[in-house]
């Protein structure tokens, strides 16, 4: 294994050794990986962390905190802290994009034309360009008749593999709307290619068009039925199948003209197939002889079902392998959610973005104090106020110029009135105050505060009012999202005053947790790889970083094929 990692996963024995090393490292830090940062103030979470670490990191620059998930340490840190960060990084699977031409000789990544790339952002375009080339190379290698795009979404991957690489493709997604979008988009692409072909005179060649199937259940029986839907390469019709349940699928299978004695082969491909769907792909590959290869790139680890819940062990998404099951180390939802953190994304954040990120975590944790004090019944349901930060940043870009004066006036009014409770109270209901304009004011205020962070001419009292105004807006927005009635005289200022001495610890605490994210993802994916390796010598499996990790943080593909 190249890079900073000293472990290998070429064999089941090596993979298991790596997994055991990860478990040994993680066990003393379960309090950190299982923590929920919204409870940072209510449960005083920082007190569980080594005090020397906290005292050191709370004085550290934002820029250095953002580098912790990448394994960057500072000389003046305590030795135990440096050992934690460096050992952790040595256990993480390397994310640098592999040289795919070396792995798949003769493979070429072809840039998408404007027709195929329509609707894709930069991230999606990169993923589809690379994965379509990889899938095509594997399908050619195993001589597969059909490629099945599992969790196809709007059919981007399926359409490129079909039109550009000329493979027979079936696109499966549980959402019927996605199926309709896939069909209409594929028809537009087909017309474009047909028109291009006519320019060169009459031709008999027809185009491969992806077939769409709406199906919520992924199983061995379903894939066997899919083999009957593989069309002859000269067939230009585009069939559509909507399957409501396994029973209906079984009926279709029995009525199909598929001959069980004929030679049929499939490749399963999943671009960020969500939660258990990636797991089901791997299980189906091991159980279904018709599936000759699988390419799985997972995501949404928080949605994995885990052994120990109400789901039977053989059906759960984690753990898969006997090796991890015998390790007796579980991952709760918070730790699986943490596995989606990207060191590469942290590293490229600018200072202002890092400050904003930590501020939002502080506001959400302080808002939890508001809920505990004024809405204790809401805490029972584990409320989610959504990803306010992402929405705020988007709106900031659109509205910052137009709302700057409005924001400054709001702060002046709040400061003149002296009493923060009065300044931000209103007879208006929360819902009427939380339109796009109000939310944008919240983010512009954040920008104003951050720009003034190092301004020595700004008084401490004005700085405190800035933070109060920001927190007040956050609370009103959160209450609205949760459908809770706004209080007549909320003491938001009192709660913020209570937590403010510990706000600067949020950044260090969250950075330490985020550093564990790539290790948790490594653990989850090594479990999947080991599951395949445990099947014996009849198949070979590898784990490979196929995307640029900055563009696509979930860049690790598990690729397996029958020998």
TrEMBL record:
InterPro entries: Methyltranfer_dom, METTL25, SAM-dependent_MTases_sf. It holds the Pfam family Methyltransf_32. Residues 123-306 form the Methyltransferase domain. Transmembrane segments: none annotated. This is Methyltransferase domain-containing protein. It comes from Acer negundo (Box elder).
């Amino acid at each position: 294994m190249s890079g900073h990692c000293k472990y290998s996963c070429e064999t089941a024995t090596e993979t298991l050794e790596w997994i055991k090393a990860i478990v040994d490292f993680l066990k003393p830090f379960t309090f950190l990986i299982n923590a929920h940062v919204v409870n940072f103030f209510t449960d005083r979470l920082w007190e569980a962390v080594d005090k020397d670490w906290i005292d050191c990191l709370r004085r550290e620059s934002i820029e250095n905190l953002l580098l912790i998930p990448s394994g960057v340490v500072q000389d003046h840190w305590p030795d135990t802290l440096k050992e934690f960060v460096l050992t952790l990084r040595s256990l993480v699977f390397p994310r640098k994009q592999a040289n795919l031409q070396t792995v798949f000789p003769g493979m070429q990544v072809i840039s998408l034309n404007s027709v195929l790339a329509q609707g894709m952002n930069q991230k999606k375009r990169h993923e589809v360009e690379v994965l379509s080339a990889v899938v095509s190379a594997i399908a050619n290698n195993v001589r597969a008749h059909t490629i099945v795009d599992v969790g196809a979404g709007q059919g981007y991957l399926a359409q490129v593999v079909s039109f550009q690489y000329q493979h027979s493709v079936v696109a499966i997604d549980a959402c019927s709307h996605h199926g309709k979008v896939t069909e209409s988009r594929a028809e537009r692409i087909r017309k474009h290619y047909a028109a291009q072909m006519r320019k060169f005179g009459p031709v008999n060649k027809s185009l491969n068009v992806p077939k769409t199937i709406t199906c919520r259940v992924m199983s061995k029986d379903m894939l066997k039925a899919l083999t009957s839907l593989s069309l002859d390469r000269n067939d230009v019709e585009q069939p559509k199948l909507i399957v409501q349940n396994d029973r209906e699928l079984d009926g279709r299978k029995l009525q199909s003209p598929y001959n069980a004695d004929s030679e049929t082969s499939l490749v399963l491909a999943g671009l960020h197939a969500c939660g258990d769907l990636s797991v089901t792909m791997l299980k189906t590959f091991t159980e279904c002889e018709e599936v000759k290869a699988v390419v799985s790139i997972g995501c949404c680890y928080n949605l994995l079902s885990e052994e120990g819940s109400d789901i039977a062990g053989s059906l759960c998404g984690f753990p898969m392998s006997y090796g991890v099951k015998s390790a007796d180390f579980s991952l709760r939802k918070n730790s699986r959610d943490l596995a989606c953190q990207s060191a590469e994304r942290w590293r490229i954040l600018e200072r202002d973005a890092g400050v904003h990120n930590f501020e939002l975590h502080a506001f959400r944790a302080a808002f939890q104090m508001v809920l505990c004090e004024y809405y204790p019944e809401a805490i029972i349901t584990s409320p989610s106020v959504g990803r306010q930060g992402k929405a705020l940043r988007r709106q900031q870009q659109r509205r910052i110029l137009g709302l700057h004066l409005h924001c400054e006036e709001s702060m002046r009014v709040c400061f003149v009135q002296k009493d923060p409770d009065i300044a931000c109270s209103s007879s208006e209901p929360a819902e009427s105050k939380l339109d796009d304009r109000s939310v944008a004011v919240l983010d512009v205020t954040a920008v104003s505060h951050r720009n003034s962070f190092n301004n020595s001419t700004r008084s401490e009292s004005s700085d405190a009012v800035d933070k109060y105004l920001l927190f007040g807006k956050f609370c009103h927005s959160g209450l609205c999202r949760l459908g809770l009635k706004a209080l007549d005289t909320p003491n938001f200022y009192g709660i913020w005053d209570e937590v403010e001495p510990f706000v600067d610890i949020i950044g260090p605490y969250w950075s330490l947790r985020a550093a564990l994210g790539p290790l948790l993802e490594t653990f989850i994916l090594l479990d999947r790889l080991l599951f395949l390796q445990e099947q014996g010598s009849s198949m070979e499996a590898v784990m490979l970083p196929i995307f640029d990790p900055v563009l696509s943080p979930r860049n690790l593909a598990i690729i397996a094929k029958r020998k």
